[in-house]
């Protein structure tokens, strides 16, 4: 079989490039604390890649009572305020291992770089990490109507890059994200646990373990 070289890389943000998944979870935990219930550790994985309101619905499964729509809106807003405070001090040191080197190599090799993030905070996070300029296109929750596992966000990023989905390699740490990449007709690299990301075509524990030459043609 001849080797397929990909023309674009499309990244999820939280938990793939940015060490921010823990801040989402901390913010949810503080909401649960205030409401008088506790969250099991499994919620950390369950809210990965899931948009804000859907994440809140997962969190409230542990509350032991139902909440009105108005209460939910208020809690989602509070969670975001706390998350925004937690990420206020982000610097390039909060990039996950291997992210900077991979983005730099892709840029040198002229590979399209896209973002597909469910977070409405994606832009300030990219800027704080000092990697905003690396991205040729950004698809975040502000521009799409169907959340992951729907493929829309990855297809929007591919469209923005002008690359066909079959030529795109997607990177995700969330189950819903891997499903979205596959549904978009792309090849999926799971970043994290092989047990959780079963549907991925390749799995790496973090981006330092990614085999660049297997997927991208190096110019120099
Ligand atoms: C990412 C995270 C999720 C989070 C979602 C929305 O996908 O993995 O845990 O709920 O973004 O983030 P936001 O910043 O818009 O609340
Ligand atoms: Mg993620």
Can you tell me about this structure?
This protein has 220 residues and is α/β, with parallel strands linked by helices. Helix content is 40%, strand content 12%. It contains nine helices and six strands. The chain has helices at residues 21-35, 42-46, 52-60, 69-86, 99-108, 122-129, 152-161, 175-183, 212-215, and strands at 8-11, 112-117, 137-140, 168-172, 187-191, 202-204. Strands 3-2-1-4-5-6 form a six-stranded parallel β-sheet, with helices on both faces. β4 (168-172), α8 and β5 (187-191) form a beta-alpha-beta unit. α1 packs across α4 (69-86) and α3 (52-60) crosses α4. The longest helix has 18 residues, at 69-86. The structure holds 6-O-phosphono-alpha-D-glucopyranose and magnesium ion. 6-O-phosphono-alpha-D-glucopyranose is lined by residues 14, 21, 24, 47-52, 55, 80, 83, 118-121, 141.
Furnish the topology, listing elements before pairings.
Layout: E1 8-11, H1 21-35, H2 42-46, H3 52-60, H4 69-86, H5 99-108, E2 112-117, H6 122-129, E3 137-140, H7 152-161, E4 168-172, H8 175-183, E5 187-191, E6 202-204, H9 212-215
Parallel strand pairs: 1-2, 1-4, 2-3, 4-5, 5-6
Keywords: Isomerase, Magnesium, Metal-binding
Protein name: Beta-phosphoglucomutase
InterPro entries: B-phosphoglucomutase_hydrolase, Beta-PGM, HAD-like_sf, HAD-SF_hydro_IA, HAD_sf, PGP-like_dom2
